[in-house]
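Progress against Task 2.4 (sequence-to-structure conversion) is shown through the following example record, which the project officer requested during the mid-term review.
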Amino acid sequence: MYDDDDDEILYDEERQPHSELSIASFIISLILGIALFALLMVTGVVSAMNNGKVDEHTPFAMVIGLLFILGLLIATVGATLGIVALCQQNRKKVFALLVFSSMHWSCWEGQQSVLSE
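Structure tokens generated for the chain above:
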């Protein structure tokens, strides 16, 4: 849009900024996805070193289980932030929608790794 008097570009005051909550939930989902992938890799390497068997009563297996539970709790926080970001008015919702696609992928990969054992 141009102003006829000064030939300067007028910026639309109605521009919607990104929601801070959606950016925070997106960062949480990215970090969580990378962490879960690394956790699955470590678990796979340790399992391969033990001929495909990991004793469930070892401290390693307990720590892995606790880290997966912690990941689910963090995913719940990120999803909650994403839902709140979707409900905000006058904010862009791109990052909030990306959160749900990345969290869906993270949960799917975690579920597949648990079911495959």
